[in-house]
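I hope you will forgive my troubling you with a question about protein structure. The record follows directly beneath this note:
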Amino acid sequence: MDMAKHEGAAGDPDCSAQPGRSHVLVGCPCVGSHVPDWRDLLTNDDLISQASAWLRDVSYPGYTFTVREGHGGVFMQATYVDTDVRTGKSETQFTRKWLLSPHMTKSEVIQTAFKCVLTSAEHRVREWFRYLDTPIFGPHFDVDDLAGLRQRGGRT
């Protein structure tokens, strides 16, 4: 597949990229004569390769970003080593999986990595913040249990 990666054309209303922003949609009207459709999108292998290349320029202390296929799509995930809240042992921790679209620009992929780190930091705070030695804002509560607490008259 010919992967047309180019800079957005100034003033082109049909281009999905802003001027000066690269995107990886094959067959974009900026460079071709037809409207893109699903056959013009990157293959999963192409998306993995492109997003991985962009993420090689991203760093956050202790975090490693990976892109892979699974669960019906392509996703990014980060890992880091930290003390496990349950075992107390230093172990590799995994962030949630962030679905990537073949429509994503470089900026969107990098911003998704940033959101990954922010969400991971909040998750860690929720695990370790304690009141009466209990993680009252923990991220692992079952939503049905939380709803039941409220329905049983839990105060606000």
Observations:
- Residues 1-41 form one domain.
- The longest helix spans residues 106-128.
- The chain has two domains: 1-41, 43-151.
